[in-house]
Amino acid sequence: MDTKRIRLTVNGKDYEREVESRVNLVDFIRHDLGLTGSHVGCEHGVCGACTVLVDGISMRGCLMFAAQADGARIETVEGLAVDGKLNTLQESFWDLHGLQCGYCTPGVLMSLTEMLREDLSPSEQKVREVLSGHLCRCTGYQNIVAAALEAAKRLRESGAKA
Ligand code: FES
Ligand code: FES
Question: Is the domain of 22 the same as that of 56?
């Protein structure tokens, strides 16, 4: 069995693990680290449910090997809330009903986090472009778009960071 020892940071916490080279990043995060907030849908890069941030960039966790994340800084949905309190983006989803079953939501939140860190005044078109990388079978996207725009507004007004 081909393995590699990796060190990485996930949501600010350091980890060192021996991983099989064939294990993808999202399976590693879920099964080895026990962080099951990131979901697995299609397992071939289409649905976006597995999206996490790798050194601040959104990545499909199913299309990257865990071994490739050696030395990386990973962020998952578990890292968004601060001291058990939902962050601005999460609160906006809560308030505007930006989810139904919630399966797509962790990945959606991570892509929108990346967007909001770059742009606190996104157009609806830009939000929809970001969401084009995520399949949601429930919402019809309307409330997700509204929640993302509301989060941007709240962040602008509060001066908080995404
Ligand atoms: S599970 Fe990775 S894109 Fe669908
Ligand atoms: S809320 Fe169910 S898939 Fe998006």
Answer: yes
User: What's the gap in Å between 135 CA and the centre of ligand 1?
Assistant: 10
Q: Do 98 and 58 fall within a single domain?
A: no
Using one digit for the tens of pLDDT, what is the confidence trace for 95-146? 999 999 999 999 999 999 999 999 999 999 999 999 999 999 999 999 999 9
Place of tokens 């060192």: 16
Determine the residue of 99, 131, 141, 142 to mutate for testing ligand 2's pocket, defined as the one with the most ligand atoms within 8 A of the Cβ atom: 99
**Residue 162 belongs to some domain of the structure:** no
Of 27, 48, 79, the residue at which a domain comes to its end is: 79
State the Cα–Cα distance between residues 132 and 24, nearest whole angstrom.
Answer: 23
Instruction: Report how far residue 35's alpha carbon sits from residue 29's, in angstroms, rounded to the nearest whole number.
Output: 6
Give the tokens for residue 30: 């879920």
Nearest alpha carbon, ligand 2 atom 4: 136
pTM: 0.97
Instruction: List strand residue ranges (DSSP E) for 55-149, in order.
Output: 57-60, 73-75
Please state, in angstroms and rounded to a whole number, the distance separating the CA atoms of residues 133 and 125. Answer: 13
Q: State the angle between helix axes of 142-158 and 88-95 in degrees (0 to 180), rounded to the nearest 10.
A: 140
